[in-house]
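Much of our argument rests on the idea that a fold can be written as discrete symbols. In the encoding step, the backbone of a single protein was reduced to a row of integers, each denoting a local shape. We regard such an encoding as a compact summary of how the chain folds. The record that follows shows the chain in one-letter code together with its fold in token form:
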Amino acid sequence: MPNTRPGFFAVDMDVDPNNSTLHDYFRGISDILGARRRGAYAGTGVLRKLKSLGLIDFTWRCMSGGFNGGLGNVDINAGTSEFDIVQTGWINNKFDKNIAFSPDFGQWRLNWTPSIPSPEPIVHLWIIQMCAHEDPKKPAGQTTNSAQVEIIQNALMKERWNDGEMCLHSTGFVPGRWDTPTKGAYRRWQQRCGYKDGTPAVDGIPGMNTLSKLGAAHNFHVVS
């Protein structure tokens, strides 16, 4: 493990955030690991308290909403959270689902050191895919997640593609809605990424490869 990466220490029970033994435990961690290497997996109340005391740098909220502080300030659809990682529940009988909200959430891999956390907007692939499927079913004017979709629409506008024609204005898009012009513009982006028309890859529904390329070109960060 790189010596610049944090460890997440679990407080997997409903501990009083003001418990002095809890604080001493993380002071001991701080003494050994130092700053930017201290993470905690715990409930909202514990994470908030440890953070306020300067005893942790990275936060991973467990799924137990009954712990002190509840679930905290998390809006999955908007892609916002006061925590670096949020555990949302079960995927199946073996694994929990966790969502990262920070470009640097403590991750590491061999021979790699993360850059300074990016100020770029974060786009969640699964949210965009949900919008692409759900928005066409909604009444006119309704959206699933307008903030995330508008990031993509603005990027497509900068590529100057709108329903098959080059343009300078986004008059073809309903802002924040994955409508027919947006789908058409994204189909053409998929073609520009090298996929052939008529294949499943050119369907106007973003995938990780094409959305990541669009993000790299227009300064937003894509997470799954």
User: Anything to note?
Assistant: Residues 122-223 form one domain. Helices lie at 20-33, 44-52, 125-134, 146-158, 180-192, 208-218.
